[in-house]
Amino acid sequence: MRGLYTAGVLDILMENQIEVDGVIGVSAGAAFGCNYKSRQIGRVLRYNTKYCNDPRYSGLRLLLTTGDLYGKDFCYKEIPERLDVFDAETFKKSPVEFYVVCTDVHTGEPIYKQLCKGDAEDIEWMRASASMPLVSNVVSVGGRDMLDGAVSDSIPIEWFINQGFEKNIVVLTQQDGYRKKKLPRALKLLLHKYPAIAHGMINRYKHYNAALEKLKLLEAEGRVVILRPTAPLGVDKVEKNPDKLRHAYEIGRKDALEKLEQIRSFLK
User: Fold this and answer.
1) Distance (Å, whole) CA 102 – CA 100
2) C-alpha to C-alpha distance for 103 and 110, rounded to whole angstroms
3) CA 58, CA 261: separation in Å to the nearest integer?
4) Cα(110)–Cα(204) distance, integer angstroms
5) pLDDT digits over 253-266, tens only?
6) CA distance 34 to 44
7) What's the CA dihedral at 169, 255, 44, 218 to 10 degrees?
């Protein structure tokens, strides 16, 4: 739900005709970031605030009855196909390259997938990227069994640079100074069916914190512009209060507006 901050940032970029060649999203960054390529300003805020209290959207009952904290059919079929339609046609026509990161549950390795069509299969890749271990079923698509991309590559800046994207705008959803902490080894018991995922989660803090240090260097070299919350977002992982979601979104808009001229100058 911290991804509502990212939605605010992306809406400001779209409203101000800030165009980039490529986007890479991880977890909520994948599920929400696709709206940049489909040019749907306000869509993320609209459907999250409207349906966050809907029992079909998320909640403990869903987790206990289906194995998914977020409703598979409601979130990834009914909303994008009927209730708040995802513009797959614009997504498909857009020249922006859009990538998501998932984690292979058998190897623990990151999978980087370019999505071009915005169709049901592409949305399944987005769902895989955003499916958190322990509260999600494994998502099988494209011949791979996958979960949350954040397990293996939370901030894929090095991979993206290696694809030729030399100037990057990085959107983080934690405040400056945040560092991820080590998770308990008890995860190995909870995830005994997927030891590679358990290993990735236990060691995630090392890779995440190392990526933050890498971003510091890149920022000092003038190779990235970083946007991160300048105030606490105040949202829970399963947020039911639409006002809190709107608050996180507005912080994203405010921070992006304050850096708008810097972004323009950087991209030139």
Assistant:
1) 7
2) 5
3) 38
4) 12
5) 999 999 999 999 99
6) 10
7) 20
Pair of tokens at residue 97: 């390259």
Between the alpha carbon of residue 48 and those of residues 65, 147, 168, the distances in Å are 22, 22, 27
**Cα dihedral sign, 243-32-3-255:** negative
Position of tokens 């459907």?
A: 47
Would the pLDDT of 237 be above 90?
A: no
In eight-state DSSP terms, residue 102 is E
Closest listed residue to residue 7, CA positions, set 40, 49, 45: 45
% of the chain residues with pLDDT over 70:
100
Q: What SS3 state is found at 227?
A: strand
The whole-angstrom separation of Cα 136 and Cα 220 is 38
Q: How confident is the model over 169-182, as a mean pLDDT? A: 97
Identity of the amino acid at 49 = T
pTM: 0.96
pLDDT digits (tens, 9 = 90+) for 73-131: 999 999 999 999 999 999 999 999 999 999 999 999 999 999 999 999 999 999 999 99
61-70 CB contacts, 8 Å cutoff, 24+ apart:
63/135, 66/137, 67/136, 67/137, 68/131, 68/135, 68/136, 68/137, 69/132, 69/135, 69/136, 69/238, 70/130, 70/136
User: CA–CA separation, 253 vs 45, rounded Å?
Assistant: 12
Amino acid at 61: R
**Torsion angles phi and psi, residue 116, rounded to 5:** -120, -20
At 2, list the tokens. 């911290």
